Amino acid sequence: MATIYYENDADISRINGKKIAVIGYGSQGHAHALNMKDNGQDVRIGLHEGSRSKAKAEADGLRVVSVAEAAREADTIMIVIPDPIQGNVYKEEIEPNLKPGNTIMFAHGFNVRYGFIAAPDDVDVSMVAPKAPGHRVREVFVEGSGVPALVAIHQDASGDALANALAYAKAIGSTRAGVLETTFAEETETDLFGEQTVLCGGVSELIKAAFEVLVDAGYQPEIAYFECLHELKLIVDLMYQGGLNYMRYSVSDTAEWGDYKSGQRVVTEETKASMRKILSEVQSGAFAEEWMDEYHGGGKIYYERRRNEQSQQLENVGKQLRRMMTFLDAKEV
Questions:
Q1: Nearest alpha-carbon partner for 81 in 40, 42, 125, 45
Q2: Mean confidence (pLDDT) of the chain
Q3: How many of the other CB atoms lie within 10 Å of CB of 135?
């Protein structure tokens, strides 16, 4: 069974008076920084020159300095900038300013797991990874609760890395919900696998394929959109609340029978074999190397795929339908 830590397992006083730098002010960065600020922590934000996030962070009452200055000042440095640029920023701005006894923290293990960042032996390396987007980390904290998180220790130079990481987790509200102990490898590999096979890649392709089958068969695209994309939220919300059993309890008997009869005809042994191949690419580092090469090579394939996906019939139909549904607060990219 997993080890899970709660409020009584964490001592926030361990980081009281410590200087904490949050490098980046995006989704996770703003939530971590504001939650800690509300808990009385000494937080500063490290941003690159010309960052568009500077004005927002300052408007939120936070002090903004360069990444190098933030690293120089801090005892604890949480790095929450995008994965592909972490390695270069670490090498150029953070590593030269590290001091023995510092703690380097991450909200995702990618760069440590694949060796793009290797810290000196005299600093702690830990991870606190909330299991929600940053806006939810902030919203739930303000409501008086917290989102679950993962905690992992890669390097324990001080002997107190776990206790200090749990103090950080408490400062952002996650011990209110529970913090599950893991490793950098397990967090990274399961996170990438889940994104590719279910949460992003798998779901996106399933939706597109089902939509195309209905439209090709002569059904109205608007009807296909509702059946294959719009109603997905209703089902996912039921799963979120009570797992697959609660979803099946909540839908019609006909829908439940369709689940049992046809689900395994869509997700077959061949599909699972592809999943195993994807997992092996994640475990070996092949995916990480390919992604870093693509990003630092200018992202030609990445941006071409983005343009193609944004112009699909599914997206155009959905855009029009969402504009009709004023209750959605519809977003357009």
A1: 45
A2: 97
A3: 12
DSSP β-bridge partners for residue 124: 103
Contact partners, residue 272, CB within 8 Å, separation at least 6: none
Tokens of 325: 């549904």
Report the catalytic residues: 108
Distance, CA of 164 to CA of 173 (rounded, Å): 14
Backbone φ and ψ for 110, nearest 5 degrees, come out as -50, -55
Q: How many CA atoms lie within 13 A of 20 on its CB side?
A: 29
d(CA 220, CA 85): 44
Q: How far is CA 126 from CA 81, 293, 299, in A?
A: 16, 26, 30
Q: How far apart are the first and last CA of the chain?
A: 42
- Residue 168: Cβ-neighbour burial (10 angstroms; 0-12, 13-18, 19+): buried
Count of CB atoms within 10 A of residue 27's CB? 17
Share of the chain above pLDDT 90, in %: 97
Q: What is the DSSP letter of 174?
A: G
- pTM reported for the whole predicted model: 0.94
Cα 260 versus chain centre, distance: 31
